[in-house]
Each structure stands twice: as C-alpha cells, then as structure tokens.
Amino acid sequence: MTTVIVWFRNDLRVHDNRVLKRAVEQADRLLCVYVHDPRHDATTRWGFPRMDRHRRIFLADTLRDLDASLDRFGQRLWIVHARAVDALPQLAKSVNATRIVCEHIAVPEEERDVADIRAAGVEIETVWQSSLLDPDDLPFDITALPQVFTAFRKHIEAEGVQPRSPEAVPAELPDPVSTLPTPSLRDTSSIDQVFGAIAAADDDRSSFPYAHRDFRGGESAALSHVERYFAGSLPQRYKQTRNGLIGVDYSTKFSPWLATGALSPRTLYGVLKSHESTQGANESTYWIWFELLWRDYFRFLHLQHGVRLYRAAGLTREPLPSHDVDRFEAWRTGRSGEPLNDAGLRELSATGYLSNRLRQNVASWLINDLRCDYRAGAAWFESQLVDYDPYSNQGNWLYLAGRGTDPREGRRFDPERQARMYDPDGAYRLLWNRGD
Fold first, then answer.
1. Which of 22, 263, 296, 313 has the lowest CB atom count within 10 Å?
2. DSSP H helical segments within 105-203, as ranges?
3. ∠237-387-133 over CA atoms, to 5°?
4. Overall fold of domain 309-433
C-alpha cells in the first residue's frame, strides 16, 4: 500500500489542484496536512507580529473550508503546529509514506523548508501551480525574462500565450490515514488551538468585510464570489472603478482568495472568458487579465532572481536604506500627519485590507517622504493584509523603492495631488480620520 502525504501550502483548495492530482495518481492512501510554522507567530524585528489577527482569522476560515471539502471525499485536513522539517519527516516515518507532494513556492524561506526536508532523507516532489501562465509555456527561458513588465506583457500577448485548462476536481480520493501514531502530533488538529479563537473585525467601513459570509476565507466563498462578480455588470466597468477607495464593488476583490490559493487563477480566467463571450470584451475586462499578468510577473521574477530579491539593496548596488523608528511608528499607526496616507494606514489596521491605490500611496510616503526602510513597510503589509502574497508584496515594495528590475527614480506619489484625484470630496479621509 502506497501512502503519500499532501502538504498543503498556499494552495488551499480542491479545484484545479495539481498537487492533489499528482498525489492521487500515486497513492493508495492519502494524508492531507497543513503545517503552521511557529515562525509566523513570532514578533518581527520591527516590533509587531509577523501574522496579526486579520490574516490569522482569514487563514483559519480557509482551512476550515478546506477541511470541509476534503471531508466530502472521506478525507480530513490535519493541522500541525511545528516547523515543517521537524514535523513532516516524522509524519512520513510514522505512516510509512513513500513521499510528500507539495506546491513549489519560489520564495527563499519556503524553498529552504523543502531543502531541509530533503536533507532529512524524505522524498519530496514540488509542483508549480500558483501562476496563471505556466513557466514552461513562456516564449523565452526564465533566465531571459524581460526586466520591465510592459516588455513582458507585450511579448506574451504578441506570442498569444494562453493559460492551460484547469484540472478537474477529483471524482474520488484515496483512503485516508485515519490516525496519527506519533504522540507529539496527535493533538494538533484543532484550528482554534493553532490560530486562536479570535473575533473577526466586523467594521462596516471595510472594503473587504471578511466577517461577512460572502467574504469569508476558503474555496466555497471564493467560487461564489467569482460567480456573483461575473454575473453582473461590474467587470464591464472595472477599469473606471478600480482606483476607488470605499466599498466592496470598486475592485474585483479576488486577491485574498488568490493569495491563500483558495481560488485558482486558471479557474478565474475561465470564468472571465465566459463572461466576455456572453457580455462582451472591453478595456475593463482586458484589465483583469492585465492585472493577473502582473501577478504572474512577480512570480516569474522570483524564479529568475530568487534570494537576491530579498537583499536589503534588492537587485541594485544602492546603499542600505535609512530608517527612523519614530517616523515608522507614526506611519504604521496612521499618525504621520498626512491625512490621505494616515487614513489608509488606519483602514489597514482596522480591517486587514487596503485598496491598490492607497497601497502605492502609503508605500511611497514611507519610502520617499519619511525616508524609512522599505523592508519595514513590507513586513507591516505581511502582518496585516488578508491578501498577503510574498511574491507580489516583495515585488511591489522593491518596485516602489527603486530596488527591483526597473530601478527608475521618480515613483513618489504626491499625496495632495492623489487626494484631489481620488478623494476629491474628502469622503475617504473623513471616513477613516473621523474623531481626530
């Protein structure tokens, strides 16, 4: 009897899951595991939790939904609170697993985890599946990836590269491993035990109200949201509304589910194309594809440059960024004295979400005006955002800091001009700065 461990990482779904498909092809018996690393419970060097309450609640809901999906196949999701290198080799030995199958995540910490497990003598197979386009389908080798997004996009579109079709949901799954004989891992399957029974932020001002059923973490809410979004007219005017600041409808709101892997980008793209076939394609529906390509681009940059993206200087030879603890704390808490950016940081802290327009603004303010270390800002986003994605987070912060592949100067956002353009009546600033 062949036992395979499916190590769920940032692919917390059953639909279009290549890792699950690969495991099913090999296994007579399956053990489905999610490993929550204690490093994510720690305090960062900047003085705040690496994963704060918004992300913890959204992730816990996502895992509950995945467990329910697996239960319909007679499986369950085991939650382990330990370092992967400590838990998975031990698990593999205890259930006589022949191998582990997991998602390939091209981020240094995650790649070290896989390397450490291999060094412990366990066979582990990684499967790439987080991008819309497959790296093997690109019209160039990953080492020749264009260093500017526009050149990348134009090359992709000129060559007509298209996403592969999503994988079908399995008809059935192999038998489960019903018990874990390893005593130290036997009692680690309570999500509340691992993540804490924390009350969700139920703020009626939120642009992504994850306490509401329609915006909860997990595959079920993700697929329902995609169906609901494309059933209406919102995609037809997306480009005109995407720079909005207030409400749930100004942007697609797919990113939290994409970030946890509860939603497959290929499945999303398929629904987009179906919408275009019945409702028509226009500049707004094109822009959804455009932004999915940006998401891919940051992933491919990680495949190309790897750990170099995580140096303080990024890909440049610039000196180390300066930092001021007091200015950063004022920025982080929304008390820097600039009304638009302060409002944005207050929304982020209160809800775990922030519009793309404001993300660029607050990042620019920290880097260019307060002269603080971009890595502190990236860490704060990691702590707070329900749609935190290591690829996009690192890529965007490097881009705005001028330390990525396109290190041009002049990416400062003038907050007064931005306020005139995107909050002309001051409604957003009033919403989040009221009481001051």
1. 313
2. 108-119, 149-159, 191-195
3. 70
4. DNA Cyclobutane Dipyrimidine Photolyase, subunit A; domain 3 (1.10.579)
Question: For residue 348, what is the DSSP state?
Answer: H
Q: Are strands 77-81 and 29-36 parallel, antiparallel or unpaired?
A: parallel
| Residues 305, 294: Cα–Cα separation, whole Å | 16
**Close Cβ partners of 371 (under 8 Å, ≥ 6 residues apart):** 322, 324, 327
User: Please, what are the averages of pLDDT over each run of 10 residues along the chain (436 residues)?
Assistant: 96 98 96 95 97 95 96 94 94 94 98 98 98 98 96 98 97 88 53 73 91 96 98 97 97 98 98 98 98 98 98 93 96 97 98 97 97 98 98 97 80 94 98 78
How do beta strands 3-8 and 97-103 pair?
parallel
Widest CA span in the chain: 67
DSSP calls for 207-247: SS-TTSGGG-SSHHHHHHHHHHHHHSSGGGGHHHHTT--SS
Domain positions in the chain: 1-129, 309-433
Of 383, 385, 376, the closest CA to residue 356 belongs to 385
**Can you tell me the distance from the alpha carbon of 298 to that of 310, in angstroms, rounded to the nearest whole number?**
13
The crossing angle, in degrees rounded to 10, of helices 356-364 and 415-422 is 170
Would you say 33 and 7 are in contact if contact means Cβ atoms under 8 Å apart?
Answer: yes
Where does 1-129 sit in CATH, by number? 3.40.50.620
Model pTM greater than 0.90?
A: yes
